[in-house]
Amino acid sequence: MLTNPSIGLLFWQLVIFLILLFLLTKFAWKPILSSLKERESSIEGALRMADQAKLEMQELKAGNEKLLAEARLERDRILKEATTVSNQLIEQAKTRATEEGSRMIVQAREAIQNEKNAALAEVKNTAAKLSIDIAERILRRELADSPAQQQLVDSYLKEVKLN
């Protein structure tokens, strides 16, 4: 019987199928289709947002790379400037040290010359005092007797040339 269905069975199956189809189209198709459309639109929105986010990320990445390049250039400029300033400071310090050294050498030479002159003057003064003391002692001894005095005066007069 199941292998040979009767016309009545086919009729009722067709009627039930059409009623079921009517009910499904009336109550189920619209919500199913609307939820499918809603799902499709949410997926499209998500894809658009993902594309937009991707573009924004690329823009941010390009901006970051630009900022990084600018930062590197600024760092290089600052390092170059610092190197230049340090070289200038070193040169100034060398120049000042050389000038100070030269000034100190000149002062030392002047001080040495002054000390030398003072020592020579003292030696001359001492030699003059000693010479005067020796001459005084010799003159006292020789002038003790009168003929020696006369002979000394005569010898001095011979030595002195009158103009």
* Count of domain modules: 1
Order of helices and strands: HH
Task: Give the oligomeric state.
Answer: single chain
Shape verdict: rod-shaped
**Low-confidence parts:** none
Q: Biggest β-sheet, characterized?
A: none
Number of strands: 0
Cα-based radius of gyration, to the nearest Å: 64 Å
Q: N-to-C terminal Cα separation, in Å?
A: 185 Å
Q: Would you tell me the overall average pLDDT?
A: 87
How many helices? The count is 2
Structural class: mainly alpha
How would you sum up this structure in a few lines?
By secondary structure, the protein is mostly helical.
Description of the structure:
This protein is mainly alpha-helical and 163 residues long. The protein has one domain. Helix content is 92%, strand content 0%. It contains two helices and no strands. The protein is rod-shaped.
List the helices and strands and how they pair.
Elements: H1 7-142, H2 146-159
Tag the structure with descriptive keywords.
rod-shaped, 92% helix, mainly alpha, 163 residues
